[in-house]
Amino acid sequence: MALRRVGAVTLTALAVVLAPTSTVVAAAQDPVPPESAGTQTVDEDPEFLELHIDNVTPSTVTTTSDPFVTVTGSVKNVGDRTVRDVSVRLQRAPAVASSEGLRTSLTLDQSRYDTVGMFDTVAGRLDEGQSKQFTLSLPLRSDTDISLDITEPGVYPLMVNVNGTPEYGGAARLDDARFLLPVFGVPGTPAVPPDISSPVAVTMLWPLADRPRLAAGVPGSVTEPVRLVDDDLATSLADGGRLDELLGAVEFATRESVDRDHTLRDSLCLAVDPDLLITVENMTRGYLVVDDPSDPTGSAHEGTGKDAASAWLDRARSLAASMCTTSVPFAQADLSAITEVANPDLTATAVEAPADIVDNALGVTSLRNFVWSDAGMLDDATAQMLRGDEATTTLVAANSVDTTTPRDSAHVIEATPPPAPVPANGETTPAATETPAATGSVDALLFDPSVGTALAAMGTTPQTPSYTPQRARYDLSDDSQTARLQDALGAVSWSALEPEAARAAGTPRSLMVVPPQLWTAGAEDAKTLLSTVSSLMRSGLATPRPLPAMLGRQPGSPEVATLEYPDQAAEDGVPAHIRDAAGTQTPRIEALNAALVDDPQAPLTPERFTAPLREDLLRSMSLAHRRDDERRSAEEASDVRADEVAETMDDLFGAVTVVSPGGVYTLASEQSPLLLVARNDLPVGITVRLQVDAPSGMTITDIGPTTLPPRGSRTLTVPTEANDSRKLVVQFSLTTADGQQLGEPTSVTVRSNAYGQALAILTACAGALLLFLAGRRLWHRFRGQPDPADEGYERS
């Protein structure tokens, strides 16, 4: 983590005296400056020690807290040599003075952490692979002893610094760990309370989402259980699982005995992925787990999460009924990619259908006309795509909207007047005959990107959102989960604790708490975050601001803001070949769906049969795990899903075909009908058209649309006129109404018993000869002359 370890890889040639005291600290300069004369550089970016923060107590300081900050952790030798005289100390930087500083303060040179203490010896010798625990405890403030010198509420960057002497080198700072400490009030005599004259309005989204789990390329069915690519979701829904803990944290924090005045409940809104609900609902009916995700119809075994899915879904319904609930785009799909595909059905499935799915699954009425993109930002084309006849509200990072003044919301697209009505005289204007354009506005609620970035770093799989500025990006893998939690607590608390700084910067007194949609925060992290937000409201530093009250309201300024979509968002988005696959397969799904027969008596409808395939295309465009360490597996899963949909569509179109009769088909006469068999192996009836490629000498009449029964066949009587007795090869194929090819073309060899033109000539010649001979006889008889043809014939 180069940005976090400035100077941590240099070894000084000068010996440094390390004071082995556990509780005494001194405000002194670092014995090993980051860059000084007499330093020697060893192997490029060497690693000797690894520092890990395990616990910070208290995680949030209040006026009733103990007046000490205690940090526990461990130091491990990860190098190739022994390190001696290993010691640690705690250092503090000035309080964070700007929102951007919530991230950039964690990348400052260690010399900026200028309130320091003396070192506490961890181990005299630490061999390769060895690890040692440590505990540091310092007073927040003191008039007589050395302390952290925290005298006012605020958010303070802290650093634990570890020094040691590797073999063949001198003493050096070998690692550090940094985190934020929110101080709501300073304990002691007298205590220093926070300024509560200007509380911040808090709105918090609580995401419940998962990566796509359903096996790809499997059409809908009413008898077959669904198939999952793995059984990890069962673990996540069960006791101690990620989704169980995210749900449980809200259940605990909003129950009557904890949230008596419902302030936390009012500030919260569940944000649920409809794809997760579809998967969980299907799990409650029993399901299979495929042995090979790339072979979704292959061998599979029974899943283990049926009971856990039922219990979790019941709890989700109960919780959703008591608080605000909204949906996120289906499968956390990339809205920019969907906009590029530009298919109305795909767009509706991604953006419009989720609210209905959430309502049906949870038994609630979720928010409408609210869109939260997983990317946390929109481009201009996507904003136009989201525009409807009513006002639409989106949620984006504040740095993705270019406004002249800081604000908490902005106009993105202004509403336009509806088209003029048709004149009363019945005359139509060109505009009246066109498809009416959407006229509603698109507005954006804005959240602080520094807060969103800190929340995204929480949990077991930290991620860096696309909207995070380059100067605030660094490798998260070197930070412990505890340190990342502290950073999130500090980020959430900062605007409430720094009203003067916020006012000076023109920042609105509001806070949108927006974690990533796929959030890996565990139980303790989630509970601690909710407890911190609740504490802000109980202490008077914050007030709840319900999300429904913010929808449809006019932003504070009539200015229309400009959207910014950085290159990082495109890099983190869905690649071109996945977009192309969706653009290719979506029209095929639509054509098949239109051709299938909607039988009111049949439980399996065309839409139910094809919907999973359209949803699979959205799952292939999911942004889940595309911004964390699991990106490679997410990309591979996306490729497999797109390939499986294409293969399934080929199979479905190939399941409807004309059966080859084999051999030579003989017509009894030149106008005898041709009898063919069309077969449908799909579980839903389908309407087809017979396409014919006949040679000259044969005319075949179009028989029009024909309906084939589910998993059955039908004989097609094809009117045929053959004017040639030769063997003729005719090509037959089936298509949908819009011309999509079904199955493979079939060649039929036809022979007719008609003699055609030769027979007509012979008949004409014979008729002419007959007339000539009859006329000749009559001529001779009229003249009384014997006919030469009668010579030798004697009359009796």
From TrEMBL:
Chain intervals for the UniProt region annotation (Disordered): 414-436
Matches recorded under Pfam families: DUF6049
Highest taxon above the source species: Bacteria
Organism for this UniProt entry: Rhodococcus jostii
Keywords: Membrane, Signal, Transmembrane, Transmembrane helix
Low complexity compositional bias, start-end: 427-436
Protein name: DUF6049 family protein
Residue ranges that the Swiss-Prot or TrEMBL entry lists as coiled coil: none
Signal peptide range: 1-26
Membrane-spanning parts: 754-774
